[in-house]
Specification:
Layout: E1 2-3, H1 13-24, E2 33-36, H2 41-51, H3 64-67, H4 74-89, E3 93-100, E4 104-111
Parallel strand pairs: 2-3
Antiparallel strand pairs: 1-4, 3-4
Length: about 110
Amino acid sequence: MAGVDWTRMGMGPIPATEKALKKAGLAMEEIEVIELNEAFAAQALYVIQEGGWDASKVNLNGGAVALGHPLGSSGARIVGTLINVMEQHDYHTGLATMCIGSGQGIATIIKRP
């Protein structure tokens, strides 16, 4: 979990991801798939660009714009979708991340055998 100035709401996934990668001892290039919560389209595009993420790895089944943004359970939806995509494509390292109101962000790295 990390935060940015509240006026930059939606950008929290960038520092949260950097923190999670450091803690896991991984580089972004080692992440095979990313589930990024799309609070809104411009926010997701900004995070992908500023984070230097490979857009071809992000939201393979569509993000919140396509699948929905269920308030109170978005995190569960994102992690569940990530695990399903990892199993479908035989990926072993994935990233689930989302912005949280007032400038916060959270990122979780999922590893499967």
